[in-house]
Specification:
Helices cover about 55% and strands about 5% of the residues. The chain is built from 15 helices and five strands. Pfam families: DUF247. InterPro entries: DUF247_pln.
């Protein structure tokens, strides 16, 4: 009996041990799975937010995509013609962190420590193997210098009292124009979360009541449709970089028209006008909220054309084609394509300017037409945001053509009948 009991006890103990072992294995597998999923989500959420633009997309217009004055981020870091501005960037950083002179070293220490912790995440925002040559210290220093420069620049723009009279960026219009252009180029970006972290580590003066996003929107307000009147609620849960911030200001807010995804072509303005389609300036919260109303009117919000427009549109299109927005509708590319279809001559451009759909004090009608001609876009029809709109317009055209054809036949028939009876 005692031996039997002992054997029973051994078997019971072994079963418990086995169950515990299996349970531990299951728990470990779940932990490994969670960690694996977490890593994949982390990598996908950060990867390739900022890319070099392929040469075939630039097509001989490199000057529209490369900085002329200041480098931001690693792609143009250390390029010969941009080195002259590095000293000014250091001056801006020094001004920013020295507003509390007794804590300057502590502030710098906190900034470096934070950026070091974010280094891996920041590196993953750039294209594969493009910045492997940069050591950790160089990369962290670059992020510190560039983010500090941008924050101080935004502060000086928002609060004039912070500017020096001899400031090289604010005392020369052409210099400021090139600077602002440089800061929205796709290849000249740093992750927005770097700017956000730095903004909360450096001493922001009490005179500034703006958030970082508000400061950036204020700096780029001339580039933003609708007089720069954009509410913070407009933006998604995450802004990737400054160009992405501007890009979000252009996105349509009205629902996309249902489409079979088969059409992306429209005739030009004068042709559509000739078949009875009217054009009207629309009042809308987005420049891309274009609609075809029941009374056969294409309602198009005002687009202001300024000296930043061509470079900005080129880089927003590049962002959609090789940056953050690779999947889904290509909103800006679709808009550019639609406007190119409508404006195919100086006469088309004049028709739009007369109806305040296009507005520019810098360009005449021929120059406006040429600007749209230079904007080259390519994408699959399934990514065309205005496919449904085109279907509605073209369907109306077909009906109108058929009616005109019937009217013509009827007119000829009546004329012939009169001749016979007469």
């Amino acid at each position: 009996m005692s031996q039997g009991n002992m054997k029973g006890e051994d078997i019971s103990y072994t079963n418990v041990e086995t169950k515990d072992h299996v349970l531990l294995d299951i728990v470990q597998e779940e932990e490994d799975l969670v960690q694996s999923i977490g890593e994949k989500m982390k990598n996908i959420s950060n990867v390739h937010r900022i890319n070099r633009i392929p040469q075939e997309l630039k097509k001989g217009s490199e000057h529209k995509y490369s900085p002329k004055l200041v480098s931001i981020g690693p792609f143009h870091h250390g390029v010969g013609n941009l080195k002259a501005m590095e000293e000014h960037k250091w001056c801006y950083l020094n001004t920013l962190v020295s507003r509390k002179p007794t804590n300057t070293l502590t502030i710098l220490e906190n900034c470096v420590k934070t950026l070091r912790n974010l280094e891996d995440k920041a590196r993953k925002c750039y294209g594969e193997n493009t910045i492997d040559h940069m050591g950790s210290n160089e990369f962290v220093q670059m992020m510190l210098l560039d983010s500090g420069f941008l924050i101080e620049l935004f502060l000086k723009f928002a609060i004039k009292g912070f500017r020096r009279r001899d400031d090289i960026f604010f005392s020369n219009y052409e210099m400021f124009f090139h600077l602002r252009c440089d800061l929205f180029l796709l290849e000249n970006q740093i992750p927005f979360f770097i700017l956000h972290q730095m903004f909360h580590l450096v001493p922001i003066p009490k005179e500034c009541t703006y958030s970082l996003t508000q400061l950036a929107l204020l700096f780029f307000r001339k580039l933003i449709p609708g007089e720069g009147l954009v509410t913070i609620e407009r933006f998604g849960p995450e802004v990737h970089h400054l160009l992405d911030l501007i890009h979000q200001c252009y996105l349509p807010t009205s629902p996309q028209i249902h489409s079979n995804g088969t059409q992306k072509h429209l005739h030009n303005v004068l042709h559509l006008h000739g078949v009875g389609i009217k054009f009207k300036k629309a009042i809308s919260e987005s420049v891309m909220n274009i609609r075809f109303s029941k009374d056969r009117q294409l309602e198009i919000p005002l687009l202001k054309i300024h000296n930043y427009s061509e470079i900005l549109f080129r880089n927003m299109v590049a962002l959609e084609q090789c940056g953050t927005c690779r999947s889904g509708p290509k909103h800006v590319a679709s808009y550019v394509y639609l406007m190119k279809s409508l404006v195919r001559s100086a006469t088309d451009a004049n028709y739009f300017t007369q109806r305040e759909i296009l507005d520019s004090s810098l360009y005449n009608d021929e120059e406006l037409f040429q600007l749209f001609t230079r904007l080259h876009v390519e994408f699959d029809v399934k990514d065309f945001y205005y496919s449904g709109l085109c279907e509605k317009v073209n369907e109306y055209k077909k009906k109108t053509k058929w009616k005109l054809c019937i009217q013509k036949i009827s007119h000829v028939y009546k004329k012939t009948s009169k001749g016979i009876t007469g």
